[in-house]
Amino acid sequence: MKNGDDSISPEDGEDKEDEDEDEDEKSSCTSRFKRIPMLGILLAFVSSLFFCFCNIIVQKVKLDPFTIAFYRFIGIALSSFPIVIYGSQTVPKGKWWLLLFRSFLGVTNLIIHFYGLKHMPMADANMIAAAAPIWCVIFARIFLKEAIRPFDIFNTVLTFAGIVFIIRPPFLFGGEAEYSDNYLYAAIALFCGSLMQANVYIVLRLLKGVHYSVTLSVFGSIGVAESGVFMLTLGDGCLPQCGYDRWMMMLIGIISFVAQILLTVSIQVEEAGKISLVRKSGDILFAFLFQMLIFQIYPGIWSIIGAVLIGLAVILSSVKKLVDTLDPSHPIKSRYLRKFYPPPMEENPLELSETNHLVNHASRALTTSDTSTSLHHQNKQ
């Protein structure tokens, strides 16, 4: 307690010392993690593997996508609430509507992604979904007024071409479609879902400072409500009938939560550009690998071309983010990419000395004028 003379009691001093010690322990713990080489890269790669496990469960179980999403969101919500309560986390003032909007977009995109996994190969679905960061450039221009460069336009065209090769519409490739109508509907839905996910990235930029447990708890709660409505109206609306599916529904919630935690920690200990590159590369790699090993589905030539185009666009976009963070004097910017990253304008020493001379001359003239004015007033008096 503070006394009348604003002094601090010994109890307050001890509390403050305890708080400082806790902060020092947290910072030292974080710095220790950062000193572990390649830790962030490894965590991001493992999170991609876990997310791919979720996709495998979606395709394996005999349940509709809305019921699967319902159980996944239950797992995310129940796992995040204890962290919110333990840490006494709150939503900053003015962030509630943004948080709800971000959760609605993310939930809708995830339900669409599960629907796509039920009607098309996992690799094709992941490749279309991986285009979300590319569309983010367009929405950042619309909503955040960020500049759009020729490189961004090239990447957007490259991504769109890759999606066309994966879908292979008959009016462009001729002949009859090699897939069912559900495949086409799922591809269109995934394309719309990638646009929603791009807006999620935009909203997340406005939600800086919100603890990840708060974001996940709101995300899970909105997901339970929205997927529950779809499950009761369009899905089976009942518990899985066999023990295997029930265990898988419990597992998908736990795996999703752990994967999200790994991704969050990886971003805290490593640069976001590197994590984005590893995450998308891992998604593409594991999707094709498990599709061939587990489901015995081998991609055709057009799907491979589409995957290469989208993968190239994603890698180029991630590499550009890494290069943007480099110092202007770095050899990559100053030597190899000089045309794209011109050096900052340097001040000419001659012009600078001449400017200083003019400033000094003007200041002396003002001083002389002020002195003469004061003498004039004194003479009058």
Describe the protein in words.
Helix content is 77%, strand content 0%. The longest helix is centred in the last third of the chain and has 32 residues, at 349-380. It has 381 residues and is mainly α. The model is unreliable at 1-30 (pLDDT under 50).
Quick synopsis:
It contains 15 helices and no strands.
Q: Specify the biggest β-sheet.
A: none
Number of helices: 15
Q: What global shape is seen? A: globular
Task: Classify the oligomer.
Answer: single chain
Q: Beta fraction of the residues?
A: under 5%
**Which class best fits the helix and strand makeup?**
mainly alpha
**Total beta strands:** 0
The amount of helix comes to over 70%
Taken in chain order, the helices and strands follow as: HHHHHHHHHHHHHHH
Between the first and last Cα atoms, what is the distance in angstroms? Answer: 62 Å
Mean pLDDT: 77
> What gyration radius follows from the Cα positions, in whole Å?
29 Å
Poorly predicted ranges (pLDDT <50, ≥5 residues)? 1-30
